[in-house]
Amino acid sequence: MKVSYHVEIEPEDDGRFLAEVLELPGVIAYGANPDDALARVQTLALRVVADRLEREDSARGPLSIEFLCGDHDLDRVLASSAARLSEAAFARVWDNPDDADYDRL
Question: pLDDT per residue over 26-51, tens digit each?
Fold first, then answer.
């Protein structure tokens, strides 16, 4: 049997990333970057699935699990995070009194 789980990854305001397995309520994990968050949430999801399988009485054949997190989602997360992280640097450049004459152009 093959089971697919969808993972969403979002940047947090503190610079961390939050990953969530949509089909498993409560299975969320933080990571320092999108890949770290994905690895952590996959580990947690596998533990939850293993626990559920141990408690089931019915016999089950081999189980194949895949995690779906489209590259476009990761690209969007990375672009959003880069923009958020660069805001302070751009503010320092644009609000620099040494180049105030250029700002008025």
Answer: 999 999 999 899 999 999 999 999 88
